[in-house]
Amino acid sequence: MSQELLTQRSAFANLQALANQKKKLVDLFSEDSRRAQKMTVSAGSMTLDFSKQRVTGEVLEALEKLALEAKLPSRIKALFAGEKVNISEDRAALHTALRAPADKRPEGLDAVDEQLERMAVLVEKVQSGVWRGFSGKRITDVVNLGVGGSDLGPLMVTQALREFTQPEARSLKVHFASTIDGSQLFDLLDHLNPETTLFCIASKSFTTIDTLSNADTVRSWLGSYCPDSELLHRCHFIGMSASREKMTAWGLPEANQLYFWDWVGGRFSLWATIGLPIALSLGMSVFRELLAGAHELDEHFRSAAPLENLPMMMALLGVWNVNFLDIRAHAILPYDGRLKYFPSYLEQLEMESNGKSVTSDGQPLDYATCPVLWGEIGANAQHAFYQLLHQGTQAVASDFIIAASRYDNACEFAHYEQLVAQHELNIANCLAQSRVLALGNAAVEPTDNPFRHYPGNQPSSTLILERLDARSLGALIATYEHKVYAQACLWGINPFDQWGVELGKQVAQQLQPLLNGSSSERTPTKPVGAHPNPVGAHPNP
Ligand code: F6P
């Protein structure tokens, strides 16, 4: 049986009729003074306030029908059970198994614990100083070389949870280099010490040219300080990949290889050994807390009914906005400086997963799928692109994200009260913006001045975390992962492949020799950031 299209579902016509009523947020709020209290859904310590979405009780009922018609509960079961939900690549998508205790995951996955343990051992060696560089000095800096899913998740999490860094991790500085042009690496190599820097080569496929070209540059940089390549591979590189053969072929000894599986999608891989920089930079216990938080959310997603299910509700609201209200842009607005990289992380998660125009069995779609998604720290975006949200011509749906409590671990800080006041200011801004987006001038008073006219009616949800910590961040990330899966089921597409990024890679491969040919006369340059005192070899203990 071929994949059913969204437009073939019987709830579709009903939802279209409801959308044609064109209800305005200002009227919805004045019709029901308790709307804000009623339109929330919670999972653990996280609450979604969706009262500023253009939905009514009737719309929610119809969306629930749509979810049941699309058999979301059994599709969720299939995901967790390890069925081959990634049809075009004929494999499972079992990222949830990476964060589940043994009794809660499909059988035969003991290797998950084994790799996590191997990761913990390596982390301990590096943090305790047992791991040494080629000259016998302890490691002070780690650079993660990876791109896409092998970069964005670890980068986002290490930035978000910095204040939870455990004592054993404090002496290590963790950096990230992803860009194929080498510019990030160039900056780093300029000041890093080759004797005390460890490089993590993070690549599921271990064929990604962006990452391998950075790794090759690093290897040649290190080689100019220590000619013993076997020693360099042993003391300065750890690989994380689903291909043991390719890691070995690159020169990584078996002991320096952390493995994961082809059933972990790249953009879902921070829970696997791709999470190594998180554990190195914050501590293994923080990484385990992150896994635990995601697992709690997994349990909620598997068991809660559609309208009490937070990720499913987000998915349904997204489909309502895109397919019925024709809103094709989605802004991610965390009101928290720690979530600086969360929007770019979600850009890959959502758009690489659901930017599709054929069903999972290859039929063309006659409706829209993933909206254009972008974002920025909300308070900064107020001074950048909010003008367009308030008075531009695009309809945009937004997610505001905020932690209710902040600085409760900073009471000792001399200026604690000022920081708390800043947090209150931040919350006030967050609430003000969603209110004005929803109600326009009606939030204050109407005006005849065209320049001061705010039309409102831009829908948004607000995700409120009690506080941001490893557990709640794990749950937040898992929420968006499941939202993506639920939306893919509603749209009838496969969120786990990414064929759309392959052609550009192929064409670049064809073009590169032409560029090489035109510059074959180049003379080799000095290695970047050459260290003044190359030293002799020292075996790793
Ligand atoms: O080009 C897209 C992509 O394949 C992503 O899906 C992936 O996260 C990224 O490249 C990096 O891939 P790898 O981990 O195999 O180097």
TrEMBL record:
Where is the protein localized? Cytoplasm
Asked if the record carries the keyword Cytoplasm, the reply is: yes
Q: Which InterPro entries match?
A: G6P_Isomerase (IPR001672), G6P_Isomerase_C (IPR023096), Phosphoglucose_isomerase_CS (IPR018189), SIS_dom_sf (IPR046348), SIS_PGI_1 (IPR035476), SIS_PGI_2 (IPR035482)
Q: Which GO terms describe its biological process?
A: gluconeogenesis; glucose 6-phosphate metabolic process; glycolytic process
Which transformation does this protein catalyse, written as a reaction? alpha-D-glucose 6-phosphate = beta-D-fructose 6-phosphate
GO MF annotation terms: carbohydrate derivative binding; glucose-6-phosphate isomerase activity; monosaccharide binding
Enzyme Commission code: 5.3.1.9
Query: Which pathway does it operate in?
Result: Carbohydrate biosynthesis; gluconeogenesis; Carbohydrate degradation; glycolysis; D-glyceraldehyde 3-phosphate and glycerone phosphate from D-glucose: step 2/4
Cite the entry's keywords alphabetically.
Answer: Cytoplasm, Gluconeogenesis, Glycolysis, Isomerase
Instruction: Return the broad EC class.
Output: isomerase
Task: Name the family the entry cites.
Answer: Belongs to the GPI family.
Indicate yes or no for the key word Isomerase.
yes
Question: What is the name of the protein in this document?
Answer: Glucose-6-phosphate isomerase
- Report the protein's function: Catalyzes the reversible isomerization of glucose-6-phosphate to fructose-6-phosphate.
Stretches the record annotates as Disordered: 516-541
Q: Which GO terms describe its cellular component?
A: cytosol
What taxonomic ancestry is recorded?
Bacteria, Pseudomonadati, Pseudomonadota, Gammaproteobacteria, Oceanospirillales
